[in-house]
Design a protein that fits this description.
Two copies of one chain form a homodimer.
Chain A: H1 2-18, H2 29-36, H3 40-52, E1 56-59, E2 63-66, H4 80-84, E3 106-107, H5 120-132, H6 146-157, E4 172-175, H7 178-190, E5 195-200, H8 204-212, E6 216-223, E7 226-227, H9 229-239, E8 243-246, H10 260-272, E9 276-280, E10 304-309, E11 321-324, H11 328-341, H12 346-356, H13 359-386, E12 401-405, H14 412-421, E13 424-425, E14 427-428, E15 441-445, H15 454-465
Parallel strand pairs in A: 3-13, 5-6, 5-8, 8-9, 9-10
Antiparallel strand pairs in A: 1-2, 4-11, 6-7, 10-11, 12-15, 14-15
Helix pairs in contact in A: 1-3, 2-3, 5-12, 7-8, 7-11, 9-10, 13-15
């Protein structure tokens, strides 16, 4: 309520200032209190907002004034072009999945689950508790808080079969989100100029991190049941690559889950080439009809570098992930993290651990599974009914996305524009291909806002496809 | 109170488990409640802690059990040595400044202010408010929350003289701590293999970030009043460097503050060589007898890349910093941040902005100045009295550190060990030199815990020096 009032007062003052002279004095707090029938605290909050925006300044004991705006000259930074030399890699614009769409469109492009799928109550109470504890003012060890390291190790360890040594807490390096993990892993394990095998299509964030690290990306085709192990062996042999990046559970964008037989086959290929598998278990918490089973659970020889994130399942504001690695690989990743950011906020680590160790977390996970199932089915049925030319080759057993093949010859960029004009935002599939797209695809996310609009969205897609 | 009880219960159970068989059943919650006279919530919290540590597991409806520990084989990760190839740069161990010292020693080595110097009340209430708002579940734009961008722009803008165009909010990129900024700036503006000029001595974190980025570090000597501009011009000319990294206000470790005449001289040299000055204003909030005046305030031509952090002055758990840059340089830094970590937690951004826009923030800053002054004077006097052979050449007008020259020929590593055996932890000065140390130095931090022990610490140093 107070927040709303202070926003209202700030908006009113912004309008007033549009016609006020620079240096003009604002009404006093007492006048504003009377005028808006708000408390002095609320008025002060509105004034702080405007001060933060550089619009007003207060002189203690005198009053508050419209800030004098300095006249700007046109800027010329042309000299920087020589100083900056060629960029090491092409600078990418952010992909569709990171776009913020207006509220009045149907948004099937997003990469993050909608707020209604987050454990809001658990998150708020965990953050409130953390704000009262030591974590609010403390500094974390470089590898993370020991309790959270233990939790991540235990999560993977609980899937480890008899006869395989489970990871220890000291194998865990806590990260400020899994994107930071990808950057550090590629820098630390591949190094600039060396080859990195990736599934194709694969997660655009991994492509971006690989480009930043300056590694040479080698695509290996991958379908709804993962890559062909023979093809993989050929790629290792031909390129001398020592690292494969993959998403064995509910891959982004295809939704593929590797059959368990493929786990052993890929591990054999990786071991035979003295290589690492970087397993990005991004959708561990997003199983629908199956459960995510990490390949890493079958490895205790240091061949699998396991990446698990809580950002998407707990809250995008609690950016906590972890990499589990053994041996010198772990040491190199930790050294890179140290140089990159030293440590992760203990506030966020404590809050994340609080959320995932509450009894309510299991309840939330069960309800999330049901919600994802009904959202997925709703979108699949809507597309089949209203956009029959869009082909759903594989209904995913988990994850957040449908990967849809369009009729041959479809101009995907133009289709996306046509849809957007009609009120539907979708993500063109080309962004997930490290080289040429294997065909015209779009990715449709069924975890975004307002699932009741899925049929209308599918209708727009169907009309745009003609 | 509850936290203490749950810790006590967890400790009791850990002791009990040392002699319990794997798989043994724990007492029921009801029994534990009775036994410890604690609430069920407190008991559950203790059990969650032990579950998080992987020590127990609960089977719903059955009970809680000591987790069966699997026997481990000795690990052999030798195969990784070939796969990892040579490290791109020597892997550094964390420097002394990041060490956590036991409570019973006198700690003058730290890099962070003690908790009593932090605005604890403001931090806790800001985090509590943020936990209730949108920020707890939202995602920030890649460049940061607009209100926080405005605040950082306004801070630098308020120091900008008439005739110079102040920065705009869109020139600001919010960072998860300034270390991340250094890494991105060196990657984006210098590129691997290219020269980077740095003051010598300089901040070890900058040396680490530069090594990670694979740039060639070129040291330029710098004293209590900054570098010699002629020497700087020679270094630019000889190496073709396009970037200088420096700390013009209260440099770490020397405490140097550049005289204002040097601001213009260095800017002239930088401009003449078509180069960038990366200004790390790490101690902006730590003025004692002077105030930090950014060189960046005098530049509107995109030559200064300005880095400002709130981690040390607000809370190490609120890792928020910002880089202010204009033109293509800003675009390249933002692109690197996107690939590295996509965005900064909105929870931490909102909390940071809340703290620095409270009226209590100014009060805190005034009191901090007085506390730093008395701590600095206490340590200076103690060293002069009890360790007269340690030379304080320059009493800093701000910052957190004394930079102390030891008698010629002192073995600094051995001295540090001798001091530590006697109960004093100090940071050997060599860690701040990008090449050979210019002499035997130690850095003494006067912002650490328990200033009343400074005289005893100085006495130990004096005795170790003989």
């Amino acid at each position: 309520m107070d927040d709303d009032s202070s926003t209202r007062i700030a908006t009113g003052l912004r309008t007033w200032m549009r016609t006020a002279a620079p240096g003009a004095q604002l009404p006093s707090t007492r006048e504003l209190v009377a005028q808006h029938q708000a408390s002095p605290v609320t008025v002060q909050r509105a004034l702080r907002t405007l001060t933060g925006e550089g619009l007003i300044e207060s002189r203690p004991g005198v009053g508050t004034f419209v800030r004098a705006v300095r006249t700007a000259r046109p800027a010329d930074y042309g000299w920087q072009t020589a100083a900056l030399r060629s960029p090491p890699t092409r600078i990418q614009s952010m992909p569709s999945a990171m776009r913020t769409a207006p509220n009045d469109v149907i948004a099937l492009h997003a990469g993050y689950p909608d707020r209604e799928l987050l454990p809001e109550r658990l998150v708020r109470s965990a953050l409130t508790r953390a704000a009262r504890g030591d974590a609010a003012l403390g500094r974390s060890p470089a590898a993370g808080l020991p309790e959270l390291q233990s939790w991540f190790a235990h999560e993977l360890g609980s899937a480890t079969p008899v006869g395989v040594t489970p990871p220890t807490p000291s194998d865990v390096v806590v990260l400020p989100g899994s994107q930071s993990g990808l950057s550090s892993i590629f820098r630390a394990l591949v190094a600039a100029g060396q080859p990195l095998l990736v599934e194709s299509p694969t997660y655009w964030g991994a492509i971006l991190a690989a480009q930043q690290a300056g590694v040479r990306i080698v695509p290996v085709p991958s379908g709804p049941f993962g890559p062909d192990p023979d093809e993989l062996a050929r790629a290792f042999g031909e390129t001398g690559a020592r690292v494969l990046y993959a998403q064995p559970n509910y891959a982004n964008p295809t939704g593929a889950q590797w059959p368990t037989t493929l786990h052993a086959q890929v591990l054999d290929v990786v071991r035979a080439h003295g290589a690492f598998l970087v397993e990005d278990d991004w959708a561990h918490d997003f199983g629908i009809t199956t459960t995510a089973t990490p390949v890493a659970a079958h490895d205790d020889s240091g061949h699998v570098i396991y990446l698990r994130s809580l950002t998407k399942s707990v809250s995008p504001a609690i950016r906590v992930a972890a990499v589990i690695a053994r041996g010198p690989a772990r040491d190199r990743i930790l050294a890179d993290r140290g140089a990159e950011s030293m440590y992760v906020s203990s506030m966020l680590q404590v809050a994340a651990l609080d959320v995932v160790t509450q009894p309510g977390w299991r309840t939330h996970q069960r309800s999330l599974r049901e919600q994802l199932r009904s959202r997925r089915d709703l979108l699949v049925n809507a597309v089949r009914e209203h956009a029959p030319r869009a082909g759903i080759e594989h209904v995913p057993s988990g994850g957040l996305n449908l990967w849809v093949r369009l009729p041959d010859g479809t101009d995907v960029g133009r289709l996306a524009q046509d849809c957007e004009r009609a009120g539907l935002v979708i993500a063109p599939g080309g962004e997930w291909f490290p080289a040429e797209p294997a065909g015209p695809f779009v990715r449709l996310n069924y975890a975004g806002p307002n699932p009741s609009a899925f049929p209308s969205g599918a209708r727009i897609l169907g009309q745009a496809l003609g």
